[in-house]
Write a structure and sequence with these properties.
single chain; 15 helices; 0% strand; globular
Length: 455
């Protein structure tokens, strides 16, 4: 029977999380290659490498917006599927997945149209100069044409992972990454397409990933299948998907807002050089954040399933495990970035001026990075338990209430320009991360204990 497969209420809780975490973490690391490989190659273009790299960095807020909508419907629907499957209600789980797919498709097309219409004013708002705009425009114009593939690839892969097929989810991302690694040098250097080649390689790779996902979810191996009969949108179901997906959506949208503020403020205080440094900082962040993101995301199906099945002791054990692992990992990565900042910078750019200014910038930005693990763990646990409003609140609190005002005011109060802009991140990690995690412990832990007694 389908409901006996991948039953997360059986066996070791930690074993179930790791069974998902290992392939999911590897998948997320591979997924980073889509954009990271682009930046590595672009940073090695013979002429104007730093300007081209900066141009791609200016596109990150728009890319984050696309990812935000993929999170809204993918991360919104997948935990609901886990909860319904834990209750033995596979029919409703399939309808949730079908509705999510339709929403991803519709909004992918809408974002393509709006992005192409408003790209010029948006890029200048995000910190572009007359020198960097041509590179940003070339990249984003092609990337937006593949927004649908990006949405389906990112959003629907969550439904593969939520069913316990972590290895298949990893293969989805691996397939696209391999194509991207192969196509990037061909388009960028051999065909002389530059940043346009990087964008074309990315969207073609996402197309192959999306094709793989649809084929698997419509095949016989899937527990929950993608069916045309489940495509009809139902208002209450859509509301549930959107409500739970608001956490991932808010995180990505607020990421976009923060990127915009960083780029525009660094352009004001330091010019194109510091916008380029911010591109490197974001690239390093994507790489070192993926493992902790993988472990916290992989706990969600396990927590959701056990919560739906009434196994509250197992939920508490999962919370303990994921919290400890996240804190230990981010502490170790803080030490590496602080000790060897030049190594991380040289992955993306080797120009002496950027390295000289980038070393102190990385050390400021990543100071106390382990506090970020508290935000990751707290929000993922809220999402896994279906407590969307709390997850959304703390995403907004850290980035909108704390980071953005600090970006604006610290340089003016301390008069330290770019250093003041970069100091906003560690302060927000300390305040926002601690608030999120402590609130989770104070509210969730007693609730699980009481439900266990009732049971």
């Amino acid at each position: 029977m389908a409901e006996t497969k991948n039953d997360f209420s059986k066996g070791s809780v930690i074993g179930n999380i790791l069974k998902l975490a290992l392939p999911m973490t590897l998948a997320q690391l591979i997924n980073v290659l889509y954009n990271i490989i682009d930046r590595i190659y672009i940073g090695r273009i013979p002429e104007h490498a730093t300007l081209a790299l900066t141009g791609i960095g200016l596109c990150l807020p728009i890319i984050s917006m696309v990812i935000a909508f993929a999170n809204l419907f993918g991360m919104g629907g997948a935990p609901l599927c886990s909860i319904e499957r834990g209750r033995g209600n596979d029919g409703e789980a399939e309808k949730i997945m079908g509705n999510s797919f339709v929403l991803l498709l519709l909004f992918g097309l809408l974002l393509t149209a709006l992005g192409l219409i408003f790209k010029r004013p948006m890029l200048y708002l995000f910190g572009a100069s007359d020198m960097t705009y041509p590179y940003a425009n070339q990249y984003i114009s092609i990337y937006l044409l593949g927004s649908v593939f990006v949405m389906i690839g990112l959003g629907m892969n969550s439904f593969i992972n939520s069913q316990g097929f972590g290895t298949i989810g990893m293969m989805t991302v691996l397939l696209g990454a391999i194509f991207n690694i192969i196509l990037d040098p061909v388009f960028i250097f051999m065909l002389g397409m530059g940043v346009q080649g990087a964008a074309l390689a990315t969207i073609l790779s996402q197309f192959f990933s999306a094709l793989w996902i649809v084929r698997f979810l419509t095949g016989k191996k899937a527990i929950l299948r993608l069916k045309i009969s489940c495509f009809r949108l139902q208002t209450e179901r859509v509301k549930r998907i959107v409500a739970l997906g608001m956490s991932g959506f808010t995180m990505a949208i607020t990421n976009s807002l923060v990127q915009i503020m960083y780029n525009s403020s660094l352009q004001h205080y330091g010019g194109d050089l510091y916008v380029g440094i911010m591109t490197v900082i974001n690239s390093v962040r994507e790489v070192i954040s993926m493992p902790v993101s993988g472990i916290t995301n992989s706990c969600q199906p396990v927590i959701g399933f056990n919560y739906g099945a009434g196994e509250y002791k197992r939920v508490k054990k999962a919370i303990k495990f994921v919290s400890i692992v996240a804190i230990l990992y981010t502490t170790a990565m803080w030490g590496l970035v602080h000790g060897f900042p030049e190594f991380f910078i040289r992955i993306f750019n080797k120009e002496p001026e950027l390295i000289r200014a980038g070393v102190p910038s990385l050390r400021i930005y990543y100071f106390g990075f382990f506090f970020m693990s508290l935000q990751f763990a707290g929000q993922s646990i809220f999402v896994g338990l279906g407590k969307a409003k709390r997850a959304v609140f703390f995403s907004i609190f850290r980035k909108v209430v704390i980071v953005i005002p600090l970006i604006l005011f610290i340089p003016q109060i301390l008069g330290n320009g770019t250093a003041g802009v970069l100091m906003a991140e560690p302060v927000s990690n300390l305040v926002g991360g601690s608030a999120c995690f402590i609130t989770m412990l104070v509210t969730v832990w007693p609730e699980l204990s009481e439900k266990r007694k009732e049971k």
